[in-house]
TrEMBL record:
Its EC number is 2.1.1.-. This is Class I SAM-dependent methyltransferase. It comes from Enterovibrio norvegicus. It comes from the Bacteria. Residues 148-195 form the Methyltransferase type domain. Keywords: Methyltransferase, Transferase.
């Protein structure tokens, strides 16, 4: 469940200096450090903790608390259609269950951070409803599912304060994913867990805020400072084909509506993911996932070649 704002404030720190924040008044937080004083606005109870001089984010947009990307809301028949076209992922469901079981097997509660939690992610509902989870969430826009605004390249939270970090459908939207993963590593406790889902073969989404893609092996190497618990394709070749057809017909007819209509008509293609062997899904995945544990020793470069899990042996 979402942690209360007072408890969250105790975990916050300056994204520039890393020192603790103090309230200057009801609308400003301040950090006093050897390199100077840093002030951050609190807008409608949301602390805005972003180093704008080191970010692609525009201060005026962020301080309006709105998303820089239009996010469509669905209701009625459109909600049903969206659920048919993009049903809950059985892979994510299983991974979330494993993550929760691992977190709570030896302790009664766990503190979890969701990076990019402005919208509740696919399969992430248990973290918001389980009373044993102390949940902290942030994004670059305000919503009921976040407690503050921040840039994931500079997470304004004290080091070694979380049992788990979740990064779902975020790393494709940051300029320097290695820095984001390093920040996740920093805020995790010793032996803390990370779970990430990232696209591989998907067309551009969220327009100018889409930058990266990863093969399954490349994704593993990105998390090389974590020991492997589980990894693979979060969505396989069938889902990838559905994405491709959506993009193809959208471009052919210059119409997003037609692309989505075709995607809805052919949504059954994604169920072939379950019939295709994992090794082939890995090579043609729509998206990949990684679940791992913080470790002191990074994997060696040579081992990533041996790690390959696809069908092209």
């Amino acid at each position: 469940m979402l942690l209360g704002q007072e408890a969250v404030l105790e975990l916050l720190c300056c994204p520039v200096s890393g020192v603790s924040l103090e309230p200057l008044d009801t609308n400003v937080l301040v950090a006093y450090s050897t390199d100077g004083t840093h002030e951050y606005d609190v807008v409608d109870s949301y602390p805005v903790l972003i180093r704008f001089e080191n970010s692609i984010l525009d201060k005026s947009d962020i301080q309006r608390l709105s998303s820089t990307v239009h996010r469509q809301s669905y209701g009625g028949v459109f909600s049903v259609a969206k659920r048919l076209a993009c049903p809950p992922s059985h892979v994510t469901k299983g991974n979330v269950e494993l993550l929760l079981d691992t977190l709570l097997s030896q302790q009664n509660s766990a503190r979890v951070l969701i990076v990019g939690g402005g919208t509740v992610g696919c399969g992430m509902e248990p973290f918001y409803t389980d009373p044993r989870i102390e949940l902290v969430s942030f994004d670059i826009y305000a919503s009921p599912s976040v407690q503050f605004l921040a840039d994931a390249h500079n997470i304004p939270l004290v080091s070694e304060s979380f049992d788990a970090v979740i990064i779902q459908a975020v790393l494709e939207h940051v300029l320097r994913p290695e820095e984001v993963v390093a920040e996740a590593y920093r805020v995790l406790k010793i032996d803390g867990l990370v779970y990430a889902e990232t696209p591989f073969l998907q067309h551009v989404h969220e327009g100018p805020y889409d930058f990266k893609r990863y093969t399954e092996s490349g994704h593993r190497y990105l998390f090389r400072c974590f020991s492997l618990i589980k990894s693979g394709a979060s969505a396989g070749a069938g889902t990838q084909l559905l994405w491709a057809l959506d993009g193809f017909f959208c471009g052919l007819f210059r119409s997003k509506i037609i692309g989505k209509f075709i995607k809805l008509c052919l949504c059954w293609l994604q169920y072939f993911d379950r019939l295709i062997p994992e090794a082939y899904n890995v090579d043609a995945a729509s998206g990949v996932y990684f679940l791992g544990r913080k470790t002191r020793e990074a994997i060696k470069d040579l081992s990533i070649v041996e790690y390959y899990k696809g069908a092209q042996r």
